[in-house]
Amino acid sequence: MTITMYGITNCDTIKKARVWLESHDVAYRFHDYRVEGLGADRLDGWSGNVGWEILLNKASTTFRELSDTDRLSLDENKAKALMLAKPTMIKRPVLDLGDRILVGFKPDVYQQAVGGLK
């Protein structure tokens, strides 16, 4: 199984998650969606898996810079369009395990999900 981590290189949470994976000898591929992009099909799959509300990082600088109108009148289609246009609004990291995804980084969740994959 190939594990793929999605995010952006300079994110502190991504750095912590990468250190955790590497220190636990978990092989993974890193996909920087600032460089490699992110397709609508993949975002739709994630949204169907965990919900757009989980994926949208309302604490991100990019989200906070939106107009009040954009922030307050969100629905699934608008949120997906915003995340595709500005992927930094996606909560990081997204860890694709093949059969499921994990959003965000919590060491105990990573341990439970990938600890036995080594």
Automatic annotation (TrEMBL):
Top-level taxon of origin: Bacteria
SUPFAM superfamilies, A to Z: Thioredoxin-like (SSF52833)
Species of the source: Mesorhizobium delmotii
Family: Belongs to the ArsC family.
Protein name: Protein YffB
Cited InterPro entries: Arsenate_reductase-like (IPR006660), Thioredoxin-like_sf (IPR036249), Tscrpt_reg_Spx/MgsR (IPR006504)
